[in-house]
Amino acid sequence: MALPPVLRDRLRLPVIASPLFIISGPELVIAQCKAGVVGSFPSLNARPISQLDEWLAQITEELAAWDRAHPDTPAAPYAVNQIVHKTNNRLYEDVALCEKYKVPVMITSLGAREDVYQAATNWGGITLHDVITNAFAHKAIEKGADGLIPVAAGAGGHAGTLSPFAMIQELREWFDGPIALSGSIANGAAILAAQAMGADLAYIGSAFIATQEARAVQGYKDMIVERTGEDITYTNLFTGVHGNYLRPSIEQAGLDPDNLPQSDPSKMNFGSGGNQEAKAWKDIWGCGQGIGAIKSIPTAGDYVARLSAEYEAAKAALAVKTAFTAGAPLALAAE
């Protein structure tokens, strides 16, 4: 199935920048969209709820102004992430604001809700749902989600344990709709690899933490630049849901990453107060295993430009390899 126009016609690179709890704000989203990738943020980043109205107005107005000034390179659409968990007592108010601004893409996490998907459909938006297993994917599509975001092993923050190869293979056996693959994607070659496996789009998060527009503290950004995939710890201690975190940030909090207790999943809370989970993400820094590719702290626009150059170079290199393997002379293949 072809991608819906909103995810096809206005992207300069097949990428969705994932919503980063606490870190994604309107400055980062607007920069991402202007650079030609889907920018996103969790609605719960805007506190109090009146700030969500302000953010949506700012994003809508600034992207519209960009489009008027740059008709040949219009901004990519933006997305809002909704935590669809029973403890989120802001959900309906947040969805109502998304309806007010006709948010193009809505990303749902930690639960699948038919009423939320139907609401987005009614205003002309599309919905993508985070999944860590094939079973969860089936439930989301059955309830009306338009597409899937398989959060594979190595993804930052809340993540699953399945290889991206396994997840895409199983999903494509029955689902031909939009898929954005998440898990250790941080350079242009990885974007092309995600497409080769069967994904339509790459879903990139951790690399955007280390951009100038991100609302992360400097120490967080520096740690991403300085560390590699070996510095990631997988645990459910901090929110009740398993996720990947920077090992040194756990140590800075006075904990031993090699001896972390298990959390009680029944006590997880993603409500509008956000005290416990906000403290976890503020002090314990979520991050994926792909950070070895991050060597600096650029603007979001410069990072996307680098991804684009790497993506085109990877496609060219693959064309040469394919032609050479097929028996074409290398000189002709290079042409």
Question: What would your notes on this structure say?
Answer:
This protein has 335 residues and is of the alpha/beta class. The chain contains 13 helices and 11 strands. It has helices at 26-35, 49-69, 91-100, 114-123, 134-142, 164-171, 188-197, 206-209, 218-226, 247-252, 275-283, 300-325, 330-334; strands at 15-17, 39-42, 78-83, 105-109, 126-131, 147-150, 157-158, 180-182, 201-204, 232-235, 243-246. Helix 5 (134-142) links the parallel strand 5 and strand 6. Helix 1 packs parallel to helix 12, helix 3 packs parallel to helix 4 and helix 7 crosses helix 12 (300-325). It is globular, with a radius of gyration of 19 Å. 48% of the residues are buried. The model is unreliable at 272-276 and 330-335 (pLDDT under 50).
Low-confidence stretches: 272-276, 330-335
Structural class: alpha/beta
Q: What proportion of the residues form beta strands (DSSP E)?
A: 5-15%
Strand element count: 11
Mean pLDDT: 92
Order of helices and strands: EHEHEHEHEHEEHEHEHHEEHHHH
The first-to-last residue Cα distance is 32 Å
What is the strand arrangement across the widest sheet? Answer: 2-3-4-5-6
Shape: globular
Largest sheet: 5 strands, parallel
Tally of DSSP helical segments: 13
Helix content: 40-55%
* Rg of Cα set: 19 Å
